[in-house]
Design brief:
With 77 residues, the protein is mostly helical. The chain has helices spanning 24-32, 48-60, 64-71. 39% of the residues lie in helices and 0% in strands.
């Protein structure tokens, strides 16, 4: 790991750093790209089928109600 060096001059009227956090990219990789993640490029989805289903749902313009009805069918979800 790289060490982070921060120099600061304290002036009474300046803002202060309250917290240093990981970058959004690092947080995404930790959340969705950890152990067990797909190596085929479908992360954060578990499989290509899941990815293709979501892609279809978005591109086809299926509404939330219709999608909920579809996923409510036993054996579909």
């Amino acid at each position: 790991e790289e060490d982070m060096h921060v120099e600061e001059d304290i002036y009474p009227t300046t803002a202060r750093i309250l917290q240093m956090d990981v970058t959004l990219h690092e947080r995404w990789r930790t959340t969705f790209g950890g152990e067990g993640a797909s190596d085929l490029g479908f992360t954060p989805f578990n499989s290509e089928v899941d990815w293709r289903f979501v892609e279809w749902a978005i591109k086809s313009g299926v509404g939330h109600k219709q999608l909920d009805q579809l996923l409510g069918i036993p054996g579909v979800s």
